[in-house]
Specification:
- With about 200 residues, this protein is mainly alpha-helical.
- It has one domain.
- Helix content is about 70%, strand content about 0%.
- It is built from six helices and no strands.
- Helix 1 runs antiparallel to helix 5, helix 3 packs antiparallel against helix 4 and helix 3 runs parallel beside helix 6.
- The longest helix is centred in the C-terminal third of the chain and has 32 residues.
- The protein is elongated and about 50 Å long.
- It starts with 17 loop residues before the first helix and ends in a 9-residue tail after the last helix.
């Protein structure tokens, strides 16, 4: 509603909605990569970090589908374009989920602050360092914006490569997160103590 307004455009064609669609996709990326970890790392530690992070991820994956697919009604996206964009956002959920899991497990401020700083750097570095027409896969906002551009979005091979690389990065980050959590649990540090 915020990006589309309450009044329809004078000419209700898909070109009139390009910026609204792009802003919706951009806001979704920022919500996943900044809003979600910020909310979870500043709150109470999860009593069951892995299960609760998985629940968050399931909710966000469902939300991504609800946000992305209806946008086809006001755009000229192809089915493949919408599918790849939704997969890119799901890959970002997986990547961010690793940071949320690590931050929600730790009770000390250092790991939480570091995790939030990493997510902020990833988003800002992509925006500040990207210079050119082709969005690099490591710039999540620019990549999503490029993939959402109508009518064809980013080239198909570029979109697929971005989804695959983001997914691999997210999987690797999950291994790191689980490894750190395992080490904290064995070391008996304050970060591994359960909440009463």
């Amino acid at each position: 509603m915020l990006f589309f307004g309450v009044r329809p455009p004078v000419q209700a064609v898909s070109a009139s909605y390009i910026e609204s669609v792009t802003m919706t996709v951009t806001s979704t990326v920022l919500g996943i990569m900044i809003g979600w970890p910020l909310m979870r790392t500043t709150g109470r530690r999860f009593t069951a970090p892995f299960r609760q992070t998985m629940l968050d991820m399931i909710v966000l994956v469902c939300a991504v589908q609800v946000i992305i697919w209806p946008l086809r009604l006001v755009s000229t996206w192809t089915s493949m374009q919408a599918f790849l964009l939704s997969m890119e956002l799901i890959a970002l959920v997986i990547l961010t989920g690793a940071v949320v899991h690590l931050g929600a497990t730790a009770t000390g401020p250092m790991i939480r602050t570091t995790g939030m700083a990493v997510m902020t750097i990833i988003v800002l570095a992509g925006l500040l360092l990207h210079d050119g027409d082709q969005a690099p896969w490591w710039s999540p906002v620019d990549t999503a914006r490029s993939m959402s551009r109508t009518p064809q979005g980013a080239p198909l091979d570029t979109s697929i490569r971005s989804v695959v690389l983001t997914g691999i990065s997210g999987s690797g980050l999950w291994l790191v997160s689980l490894g750190i959590v395992g080490m904290l649990g064995k070391s008996g540090t304050p970060d591994s103590k359960p909440v009463d």
